[in-house]
Specification:
oxidoreductase, 14 strands, Transketolase_C, thiamine pyrophosphate, oxidoreductase activity, magnesium ion binding, 35% helix
Length: 328
Amino acid sequence: MTMAVQKLPLARALNESLRRALETDPKVVLMGEDVGKLGGVFRVTDGLQKDFGEDRVIDTPLAESGIVGTAIGLALRGYRPVVEIQFDGFVFPAYDQIVTQLAKMHARALGKVKLPVVIRIPYGGGIGAVEHHSESPEALFAHVAGLKVVSPSNSSDAYWMMQQAIQSDDPVIFFEPKRRYWDKAEVDTEAIPGPLHAARVVREGARVTLAAYGPMVKVCLEAAAAAEEEGISLEVVDLRSLSPIDFGTVQRSVERTGRLVVVHEAPVFLGAGAEVAARITERCFYHLEAPVLRVGGYHTPYPPARLEEEYLPGLDRVLDAVDRALAY
């Protein structure tokens, strides 16, 4: 393994990506609660304030609306702010700034104003956290025109998608699957990455397509491995981006397999999977051998930690959907 290729946890891959951005562009600044001296509650920004100073890695007050508002002002003055929302459920005080100002400024200015702001949001469950620390609000942002919304599922994508998000002249909501922070994978820091919003087939198969993103990609890969032991071949597509969505890659997969199951942690009701299901039904009507099925969280508030394993989609619920799809 060369120096350019390292096996890194996802959190460390993000740290290395942020470090590279700070080194490359003096206009990149990091902001958020406890991102400096503490290095973030998940240590994603560990060591960056020490190496780049308090003017580049800024510990902010506990005021999400103010953090995002300040980032908008900095972007208007030519900076590229990268903002951390400490936990998914903390983003809502800043929701108005994001959807009313950040998302609309480019259109409001008839294209003359660009807002290259990245908002990092650790999201999802699986870590035994208390209330407001395990939400999956991605569909709320994907619904808003003017925002790019992405979510890596592995260390390599985390590294390169963060680079691409920071370089984007449009605002990017960057959802980080917090229960995958410690999962390791190889990262080639000299690779040529694919497009930020391109989906990727991460396992080829023949009978059913599983489409997922973020924390659920690993679950789908585990489901495909389990199904293979029973002689069922599943293809797994990592969507990677939720706004825009690469429907073409999913369509080509479904044209081969004839069946699609969309999986995400967020509630099924009006979730991102609904849009994928509708579009693929329109595009692949004559290829589908079964209705597009969805697997996700229940339409309830996220439960206390001791019940989250019942709430979160797991191997059995994915395989049950596969069986239902194959039964048609």
